[in-house]
Design a protein that fits this description.
The complex is a heterodimer of chains A (469) and B (227). In chain A, the strands form 4 sheets. Chain A has a 7-stranded mixed beta sheet, sandwiched between helices. A 5-stranded parallel beta sheet of chain A has the order 2-1-5-6-7, sandwiched between helices. Chain A has a 5-stranded parallel beta sheet with strand order 16-15-17-18-19, with helices on both faces. Chain A has 3 domains: 140 residues, Rossmann fold (3-Layer(aba) Sandwich); 152 residues, Succinyl-CoA synthetase domains (Rossmann fold); 159 residues, 3-Layer(aba) Sandwich (Rossmann fold), CATH 3.40.50. Chain A is 39% helix and 16% strand. Chain A is built from 15 helices and 19 strands. Chain A is of the alpha/beta class and 469 residues long. The two termini of chain A are 44 Å apart. Chain B has 227 residues and is an alpha+beta fold. In chain B, 36% of the residues lie in helices and 28% in strands. In chain B, strands 1, 6, 7, 8, 9, 10 and 11 form a 7-stranded antiparallel beta sheet that branches. Chain B has a 4-stranded antiparallel beta sheet with strand order 2-5-3-4. In chain B, a hairpin with a 4-residue loop joins strand 9 and strand 10. Classes of the chains: A alpha/beta (469), B alpha+beta (227). Chains A and B meet through helix 7 and helix 8 of A and strand 6, strand 7, strand 8 and strand 9 of B.
Chain lengths: 469, 227
């Protein structure tokens, strides 16, 4: 039974209970590290979940040095969440057992349901019936499960340690969801919650969006989507969430439905229909997983700009041209500097400076040294026509990054700044904590910095220009 | 304008495909100007009608059984004289004779040339009723310059739809062409959105072309499919 739009308060509560259990049982644990059941259990231990964990198997005595319980009824306390690592048929009986033993939430990992055709569809109906009959809510089936990084709870069979943060992600695909997590870790994007939606037999995308929309730990939501029947209620729900919702939708090359008779009808379910309707309802569409991560990074680290005009400052032209090119092509404004700013710039540069004072501003050799980089950046970012600044600085062995200076400028001008340091990833990792804890997202490429700028500007426009704090 | 939606009578008849003549009556009811079609059963009747509406005229076949009439050669445009009209009438009559079912011949005034858009509605498999606007006429499929919104749309949505089209410069007045009445396009979008919202039995609706002029819009051809 699917829960429809309008009445999903109950669904949100059920999802919340699943995400915040005190006690977790792993049904179908195994003593072989090559089995899913073993890894479900190890993920919980490896992730560092603080609640009680109960592995369940009818015959095993111990796994990973922990006592194994032979059935749910043997567990000495109430279990809040059961992770079921059994096959598609055994999962149904296990779900009934959960209900009988007062377990109200479950993750059904097994595939072999609706996604494989008619026979699987029948099984999925039985699973749904068992769940509703025995009062159990579940995520899946055919899913990797979920992660609540806030409480170190990883219900997937991929043991992971993830950076903490406030970005949450809903994925229609497990593998793409993992790709996201690994890239996010590399980019230093902190994760709050992660949902492998699977077959969405019990909860819809709309339900998951509602949950994350209300979730206190989540400040921005990412969504990977292939396509969904609840698209209409999903976009309506997303439009009522004040947090940014960033969507990576695939299917640009899909063969579309041919069962329609008119010209207009042939576009049914197509990528462009999704894209246009997302924009109608204020969802932000991205084209790649890297753009998804850059956007979420911007949203979770930076404040929103007061307007849509972007300034770019660099000491080397190329990266600024790449960023400007992308921003122009998306229709954003990179305004001229005001007279006062120009005068100020000439004042510090002296007579006949080897610089053209414009936006993007390339201060060339004057920008190598952090102190002078700051002098220029302060004037530039202070220009009243600029709402958001990209500061680009290329790594050098003997000149240090101007991170403290960029922070000082940001505190002074009170506008969002995005830092872009073309440099090796190891050095980005070193600079990132300082900049990002001061609200300045850091990227290694001008493309990512421009994606971040677009995302901030778009969401600020959607909210009608929220003032900066 | 009729006070009752002509769609209701057609629905009661159980007719699922609504040909041009009836589709235009529904559009007129919804507030969208069209080149109205009149059924003619003889050459003399056609010539009288043409003289009354004044040349040039267009002559087409019209039937719930035929959705793509131009594929059958069932569309004759720019007829300028009684002679042209008579010849075309004979040709279309031959086409209709090949059908067991009722196939009408309809006449309408030829509209002046304008920018041709497509405006339509379809039921998306994932979203439900979606409205579409784009570059129409024979280039629709070549350039795929189309934009979509979930129904119902508001004024701001309609405006953004128009502005987002690649062919938008054509509407603004391109190389000495007159700028067209974009507010009229906006109104047509809102009227179609309203029509589809009020009549959920509309499965598909196609206005192609929707000619747009300095003075307003005009639906030159249309068809509908009901559930």
């Amino acid at each position: 039974m699917k829960r429809e739009e309008g009445s999903d308060h109950g669904a949100v509560e059920a999802i919340r209970s699943i995400f915040y259990p005190q006690t977790v049982a792993v049904i179908g644990v195994s003593d072989s590290f090559q089995r899913v059941g073993y890894n479900l259990f190890e993920s919980l231990l490896f992730g560092g979940f603080k609640g009680n964990i109960y592995p369940v198997h009818p015959r095993l005595k111990t796994v990973l040095g922990r006592k194994v319980y032979n059935s749910l009824s043997e567990i000495p306390e109430k279990v809040d969440l059961a992770i079921i690592g059994l096959n598609e048929k055994a999962t149904i009986s296990a779900l009934k057992e959960c209900g009988k033993n007062g377990v109200r939430g479950a993750v059904c990992v097994a595939g072999g349901y609706r996604e494989i055709g008619e026979e699987g569809e029948g099984l999925e109906k039985l699973l749904q019936e068992a769940a509703s009959c025995y009062g159990v809510s579940f995520i899946g089936p055919n899913t990797l499960g979920f992660i609540n990084n806030e409480i170190d709870l990883n219900t997937t069979f991929y043991p992971l340690n993830l950076p903490k943060g406030s970005a949450s992600f809903i994925s229609q695909s497990g593998g793409l969801g993992l790709t996201f997590l690994h890239q996010a870790a590399d980019a230093g994007l902190g994760i709050n919650k992660w949902i492998g939606a699977g077959n969405r037999s019990n909860f819809t995308f709309t339900n998951y969006l509602s949950f994350l929309g209300e979730d206190e730990g989540t400040s921005a939501i990412g969504l990977f989507l292939e396509g969904t029947e609840d698209a209409s209620s999903m976009v309506h729900r997303a439009s009522r969430i004040n947090k940014p919702v960033v969507v990576y939708k695939i299917g640009r090359s899909d063969k579309v439905s041919s069962s329609t008779l008119t010209h207009t009808g042939t576009m049914s379910g197509s990528y462009q229909v999704y894209r246009d309707i997302f924009s109608q309802f204020g969802l932000y569409t991205v084209d790649t997983i890297m753009e998804l991560i850059a956007s979420l990074k911007a949203f979770t680290v930076s404040a929103l700009p007061g307007g849509a005009k972007i300034g770019i400052m660099t000491h080397t032209a190329g990266p600024s041209i790449v960023a400007a090119d992308m921003l122009y092509s998306r229709g954003y404004s990179i305004p001229e500097l005001t007279e006062d700013t120009l005068k100020g710039l000439y004042k510090i540069a002296g007579e006949n400076p080897p610089i053209v004072f414009q936006n993007p501003l390339d201060v060339a050799g004057m920008g190598f040294e952090a102190g002078t980089f700051k002098d220029y950046l302060e004037l530039f970012a202070g220009d009243p026509g600029v709402d958001l600044v990209l500061a680009i600085y290329c790594q050098h062995k003997n000149w240090r990054f101007p991170s403290p200076e960029i922070i000082q400028v940001k505190e002074k001008v009170k506008k969002p700044i995005i830092a872009c340091y073309p440099s090796p990833g190891t050095l980005l990792e070193k600079e990132r904590p300082l900049l990002e804890c001061h609200g300045i997202p850091l990227f290694g490429t001008p493309e990512e910095a421009a994606w971040a700028a677009s995302a901030l500007v778009e969401h600020a426009a959607r909210l009608g220009g929220r003032s900066l704090t | 304008m009729k006070s009752e939606n002509p769609l209701i009578a057609l629905k009661e008849k159980g007719q699922l495909i609504i040909p041009e003549k009836e589709a235009k009556e529904i559009l007129e009811y919804a507030g969208i100007p069209t080149t109205r079609c009149y059924a003619v059963t003889s050459r003399e009747q056609a010539i009288n009608a043409a003289r009354e509406m004044s040349y040039p005229v267009a002559l087409k076949i019209s039937s719930p059984h035929i959705l793509h009439k131009s594929d059958l050669g069932g569309v004759c445009l720019n007829l300028n004289s009684d002679e042209d009209l008579a010849g075309s009438f004979e040709r279309l009559l031959n086409i209709t004779r090949a059908y067991k079912q009722q196939v009408d011949i309809v006449i309408q005034k030829m509209a002046p040339p304008g920018v041709e858009l497509i405006l339509g509605v379809f039921n998306d498999v994932h979203f439900g009723p979606v409205i579409m606007l784009g570059l129409g006429g024979i280039f629709t499929e070549v350039f795929k310059d189309l934009t979509y919104r979930l129904i119902p749309v508001e004024e701001g949505d309609a405006r953004k739809m128009i502005a987002s089209l690649k062919c938008h410069p054509l509407l603004e007045g391109f190389r000495g062409l007159d700028p067209v009445n974009q507010e009229a396009i906006q109104e047509a979008v809102l009227s179609v959105s309203f029509l589809a919202l009020e009549n959920p039995e509309i499965k598909e609706l196609d206005i192609n072309p929707l000619a747009v002029y300095k003075s307003g819009v005009l639906a030159l051809d249309a068809r509908m499919v009901l559930f």
